[in-house]
Amino acid sequence: MFCGIDWAEDHHDIALVTDHGSLAAKLRITDDVEGLNQLLALLAEHGDTPEEPIPVAIETSRGLLVSCLRATGRPVYAINPMAVARYRERHSVARKKSDHLDAMTLANILRTDMAAHRPLPADSDLARAVAVLARAQQDAVWDRVQAANKLRSHLREYYPALLAAFAGTREGICAPAARALLAAAPTPAQAARLTAAQLRSLLKRAGRTRGINAEAQRLKAILRADYLHQPPLVEDAMGRQALALLRQLDAACASCADLETAAVDSLDQHPDAEILTSFPGLGKLTAARVLGEIGDDRSRFADARALKAYAGSAPVTRASGKSTFVIHRRVKNQRLAAAGYSWAFSALTASPGARIHYDRRREAGDRHIAAQRNLFNRLIGCLHHCLATRQLYSEAIAFPNPTTVPDSQAA
Fold it and tell me: How far apart are alpha carbons 176 and 222 in whole angstroms?
């Protein structure tokens, strides 16, 4: 018996299909406790037992229904909606569609091609919590970048002095000093009237502890220089808009910091944290992102090649006749691939072997991105081995017999 669930916001359509493809039962349930109990009762009527649970196919991997089904210990398969659309065409060329037919299609996918799909991993609750926090922190970083870009674009139209004052800093207008200055003086006219004492007070309030006097004098000179100006009324109105955008940026910055702390704290409680952070270039926040995407279910990836394909670091070969192309993988876990790029980039200065490996790929003709991806492919393969064998990273094993050491590393 195979179960397919067509998920919706307030209700779900259920279809049970036998191993011969005939419909055994169908049901529409609500998205609440009563609906879940009806589903479990229907499965029990058709032979569902704790020893041999009926597998379930659904088009999402999230939600309360999926979480509750996973808690029962049954295999839950999250099928890509695009794949479901292709399977639907196998049974009908008229392009007809309904919730019940989609539920039957999902059940038939398990009946015919269960081996080609993977159930949701049996990750621990702690690993899933790390995933939630790490993904939320990454989303907050993207929101912060978007909010900063909006504010920067707005300031360029009427407040070039503020942009010039923090153009050379690492954080730019996201810096606490920049945000404190903009909150105190949202227009160029107000900023030009700030005294050195007021600027020192703003810098202290923003958390600066060193070089306050010199920084205050530098900001004073920049803010009082000659710039183009909007008409006074327009400038005041644009200052009000800047304050509104600043509040969004402040909220995004606070969310980033709070979620980063929570993600790192959760990672420290996980038994894999010591192994992950033993790798060069893999800080705690990046390690939390990596753990959140790969989980701690060791049966999820059969070997290192499967993990590399999931991360997008392994290339794809397309062969047809006499033509053979080897290209980078586009279908991948985008979050893990992004974390892998940061990991590989940081490893260049933390690992002599990683730097030699990168330089060797560059000399072979790879561009920077390709060489970084190849290095990430090597590192994540080592990570799979270390997690499987429960051992820490070893530079001598990961990069044996280095031929040369870069001058920066030797120094």
Answer: 18
Alpha carbon of 181 to those of 158, 223, 254, 349: distances in Å? 15, 11, 17, 35
69 phi, psi to nearest 5 deg: -65, -40
The two three-digit tokens of residue 291, written as one number? 């753990």
Q: Which fold has domain 2-116?
A: Nucleotidyltransferase; domain 5 (3.30.420)
Alpha carbons 311 and 292: distance in angstroms, whole number: 12
Q: Where are the domains of the chain?
A: 2-116, 129-265, 275-410
pLDDT digits (tens, 9 = 90+) for 218-273: 999 999 999 999 999 999 999 999 999 999 999 999 999 999 999 999 999 999 99
Quick one: which of 73, 183, 135, 400 has its CA closest to 293?
Answer: 135
The pTM assigned to this predicted structure is 0.85
For every residue of 273-301, DSSP letters joined together read: HHHHHTSTT--HHHHHHHHHHH-S-TTS-
Contacts with 194 (C-beta within 8 Å, 6 or more apart), sequence order? 184, 185, 202, 220, 223
Give CA–CA dist 368/362, Å, rounded: 7
